Amino acid sequence: MHSIALRLNPQQDLKAELDYIVRQRTIEAACILTCVGSLSKATLRLANQSQPSIYKGRFEIVSLTGVMSRHGSHYHIAMADKTGQTIGGHLLEGCLIYTTAEIVIGVLPNFSFKREFDEATGYNELVVYGSGE
Question: I need a surface site. Which of 27, 33, 50, 96 has the fewest CB within 10 A?
C-alpha cells in the first residue's frame, strides 16, 4: 500500500473532490485512512431513505470511511454539530468544506474494486478483484 495525503479548501465539494482524485490518478482500489475537517453544508442519504437530507451550519467531520475506485466509490461520514450531537450517513455530492478537510488515502495496488449489480440487494455492490499477496 502507498498513501496520498491532501487538504481540501473552503467551498470544495468533499465527494466530488475524492471522486476526481481516483479518476485523475486512475486508481483501481483505495480506502480512506483518515479525515478530519469541517463542513458548512452536508448532503447525506440516511439509512433506509431514498431522498437526501441536507444540513446547513458548522459541522466537524468526526469520521469518514470508504472504499474508492475509478469504477465507483462508496463513502460514509459522521459529523458533529456545535453541541456535539452526531449524525451520519451515506456521503453524497453537496458536502461543502467549511475550513479544511485533511485526508489520507491508502492506495491498494494489488486490487481492483468494481461495482456490479447484485440481484439480492438491487444495487451496484463492491466486487473485489486481485489479492493482497
Answer: 50
Q: Can you read off the three cell numbers belonging to residue 40?
A: 458548512
DSSP state of 13: B
C-beta separation of 93 from 16 below 8 A: yes
Task: Give the total residue count for the chain.
Answer: 133
Q: Residue 100 has which C-alpha cell?
A: 479544511
Q: How many domains does the chain have?
A: 1
pLDDT in tens, 104-117: 999 999 999 999 99
The string of pLDDT tens digits covering residues 49-73 is 999 999 999 999 999 999 999 999 9
Cell digits of residue 68: 474508492
Range of the domain at 46: 2-130
Radius of gyration of the chain from Cα atoms?
Answer: 15
Q: For residues 132 and 31, what is the distance between their CA atoms, to the nearest angstrom?
A: 14
Q: Which amino acid is at 108?
A: L
Question: What is d(CA 91, CA 73) in angstroms, rounded to the nearest whole number?
Answer: 10
Which whole number is the average pLDDT over 28-49?
97
The reported pTM is: 0.94
Query: At 99, which CATH number?
Result: 3.30.1330.80
